[in-house]
Amino acid sequence: MHSRSSTDRYASSAEQFSLTGTKDSPLVPVNGNEPTSVDACTSAARSSDWTVLPWARGPLSAAVISALQRPPGTFGPAPPISGIDALSDDDFALALYLCYEVHYRTVTDAGWEWDPGLLTFRAELERAFVERLRDEVVDPRSRFPYEVISALDELIRAAPGPSLSRHLLESGTLEQLREFCMHRSAYQLKEADPHTFGIPRLTGEAKAAMVEIQYEEYGSGVASAMHSHLFGETMDALGLDSSYGSYVEVLPGVTLATVNLVSMFALHRRWRAALVGHLAVFEMTSVEPMARYSSALARFGIGPEGRRFYDVHVTADERHAAIARDRMVAGLIRAEPELSADLLFGAAAVLMLEQRFASHLLDAWANSRSSLVSRDQRAR
Ligand SMILES: [Fe+2]
Ligand SMILES: [Fe+2]
């Protein structure tokens, strides 16, 4: 079912991505067994649904990808989850990412969204993921045993780690900038959607504040101003493929884990406070990096259209940070103070995974390597 045959044009290495920055053919077409032609792929650009499935990276992702090409109800026995790091393993991360994607977009048969077999497997993946998150995230209550807003401020202030935006501004190459956008496309082509799942799970001031933030994330009623759309324009300006899911298969586990985190928080009412903590960190840490990314793009001659995604955030997120901190977080904790630890866990978890993500990219670049998944890694 996953024959490479005529799709082998895409048997490109990460180096090819680095050299061309573009994708020349799909891998596993979503509908039917005939590989999609290059022309069809081009015409499908900017599709908001999945047009191709990625190649598997091991038994876990193979189980999901294979199932998605069959009718719902046929998931079958799940492979064991063992001997991997659930925060960085490529196979694990891709499997979980695809389990979540059926809730965001049309992947194949819509019936997979509530398929008991797929949901059972997802739950097993989530158990392993949460266990590793708990290993890495020190209980924020023990580190910051005071009120939540101050603890959140302190978590953000104390977050260690290298700055991707500073590197890209000061010494990054154009290829590194393109790689960075390929990584971010896994989230930013659906920007705002995960957090929106939180709206019905909140009440009162926290709900109203989240809606106000999300309204602007969705372009304040103007489709072409939606942040996800603006990110597509940045990708276009960089000569990248802005169609949905286009680079997922070359993204490492550390990248997909950052998106899996927010999807897990979004899709479980039980994690609603962690979702609020996650969004608060996003909004409260955005302004300076976004300004640097815009300047980095300008350094390579990218015009205002291609920089708009970042420029918009510099303005919007100054407001969003205040709304998130002083109304959304404060409102939730006033209404449900017992959720304080979950909120800080969500905030600490995103800071930790973002730090691992940044380190991965900077380490690869410091060693003159691509930060994307190579062909050998994909074909293991
Ligand atoms: Fe945004
Ligand atoms: Fe924002």
Can you give a write-up of this model?
By secondary structure, the protein is mainly alpha-helical. It has a domain at 135-378: Up-down Bundle (Heme Oxygenase, Chain A), CATH 1.20.910. Helices cover 60% and strands 1% of the residues. It has 18 helices and two strands. A two-stranded antiparallel ribbon has the order 1-2. Helix 7 packs parallel to helix 17 and helix 14 (272-284) crosses helix 16 (304-335). Residues 213, 217, 283, 316-317, 320 line the site of one fe (ii) ion. One fe (ii) ion binds at residues 191, 217, 227, 313.
Topology:
Blueprint lengths: L13 H7 L7 E2 L8 H6 L8 E2 L5 H10 L21 H15 L11 H21 L3 H4 L4 H11 L5 H7 L3 H15 L4 H4 L7 H14 L9 H11 L15 H15 L4 H13 L2 H13 L4 H32 L4 H27 L8 H4 L2
Antiparallel strand pairs: 1-2
Helix pairs in contact: 3-4, 4-5, 4-13, 7-17, 8-15, 9-12, 9-13, 11-16, 12-16, 13-17, 14-16, 14-17, 15-16
Task: Offer a quick outline of the entry.
The chain is mostly helical and 380 residues long. 60% of the residues lie in helices and 1% in strands.
Mean pLDDT: 88
Number of separate helices: 18
**Beta-strand segment tally:** 2
What about the largest sheet?
2 strands, antiparallel
| Strand order across the largest sheet | 1-2
Elements, N to C (H/E):
HEHEHHHHHHHHHHHHHHHH
The Rg value, from CA coordinates, equals 20 Å
Helix content: 55-70%
| CATH topology annotation of one domain | Heme Oxygenase, Chain A
Considering the protein shown, what is the CATH homologous superfamily of one domain?
Heme oxygenase-like
What percent of residues are in strands?
A: under 5%
Roughly how many Å apart are the termini?
17 Å
Q: Can you name the CATH architecture of one domain?
A: Up-down Bundle
- Give the overall shape, derived from the CA principal axes: globular
What small-molecule ligands were found? fe (ii) ion
Which regions contain 5 or more consecutive residues with pLDDT less than 50? 1-27, 32-45
Briefly, what CATH class of one domain?
Mainly Alpha
Instruction: Find the structural class using helix and strand composition.
Output: mainly alpha
